[in-house]
Amino acid sequence: MHTPSGHPVAATSVARVVVLASGAGSNLAALLAAHDSPGFGARVVGLVTDKPDAGALDLARGAGIASAVVAPADFADRADWDRGVGEAVAVFRPDLVVLAGFMRILSPAFLDRFPGRVVNTHPALLPAFPGAHGVRDALAHGVKVTGCTVHVVDAGVDTGPILAQVAVPVLPDDDEAALHERIKVAERALLVETVGRIAREGLTVTGGRAVVGAH
Ligand code: GRF
Known about the structure:
This protein is α/β, with parallel strands linked by helices. 33% of the residues lie in helices and 24% in strands.
């Protein structure tokens, strides 16, 4: 694991990963299934969610992973909530923060706490179809191929430097749910592969480009 400037962080140990999720948590489950594999190089040490009823929370509890619920309703305003998320994540001393279906925007102040170390998975081929409805928007546009993207998070919505992508065909009978399920199969594999590579080979972010393994 390396900082944006290329200096090794915890190079001889396993990278500490904190997952942020709002939903069912199948991406979290995929990371949990991988992190015991010898040589994977990363370990999920904590889950932070904004939703007290997220399926991801049950998954974390079942796997014995520490978790924190940071619900907007418990905070005075958005900035306060955002700070709360930062505090909850920092407790786990992460080398890498993975947004895996975390359906809220985090501020530049949050990102500054973990510079170049926050990645997101998105169910479309960015820069096409950013935002909360990437699958629905791709389908509505009539594209024949969509997919998923893992990227470094910047201050925009799904605009950060792209790390990895996989294409997924749109089938004639697809509705949003069917297409999203097919994308999620590819997405889980891509996320696990990319997190492992970052942990083992490092991540360098310079000039709006992100490269795994350049160190
Ligand atoms: C993923 O497709 C993610 O990209 C999107 O929501 C889905 C979350 O799935 N934003 P899960 O909660 O990991 O099962």
